[in-house]
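All the exercises in this workshop are built on plain-text protein records. A learned vocabulary of local backbone shapes supplies the integers on the structure line. Once this layout is familiar, the rest of the handout is easier to follow. An example says more than a description, so a record of this kind follows:
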Amino acid sequence: MQHTDQIQALSEFLLEYATTLMGAGVHTNRAVRNISRIAAAYGYSADMTIFQRNITMSLICKDDETLRRTSVRKLKPLAFNLNLIQQLSELSWLPVDNNVSIAEMEQAFRSMVRTKRFSRWTDLLLVSVGNAAFCRLFNGDLWAMLTVFAATMLGFLAKLVDFLLTAVENRLGSFALFLKILEFGVLGFHFLLELLIFCFVGFADFYEFSFDVFHFGHVGCY
């Protein structure tokens, strides 16, 4: 029972860790290494498949392979955050070096997630300068460095604009869905009103027909 609770707690933590790490913009290979490192520190092996929108993770106990857990979690649409990536990567070494519990890992994780992130524009400038410096490291000239700087900045700007447009699109989609539901509601009310009017007219005609037959023995005789 203790191992079952442990694998469940570890699975929930690793899924939250993985979705946050991927949402911050980390490379897939680095995410897999970090997750596998944490799982191994607690005596489990982690097999995972990362798609564009979700992650599937299986934890298997190394001492008892019948003890396993497979879970699926949707990835988070977070903004690119180099500082968070660095902190979460350092966190993956904590159970290896200090043998901390899963609860302590969760507490440290929550503290890192609540940390105020760098400005998007600061990230954009630092990454562009870093790539340009990396170009210079391999004997790139001034024009090559400027090209790398501009290309990196344009690439990250495109990603930032795409993120903002996606957020706006989601809100517009929700508003459009509300309008469509409202439209169906109005049409339904209009149809119901017409149906009631039709029923009232039909009952009135039937009553008039019944009255004529009862009093005069035939229809239309006054």
Summary: Residues 29 and 121 are 26 Å apart (CA to CA). Residues 142-216 form the longest helix (75 residues). Helices lie at 2-23, 28-41, 82-91, 94-98, 102-114, 120-137, 142-216.
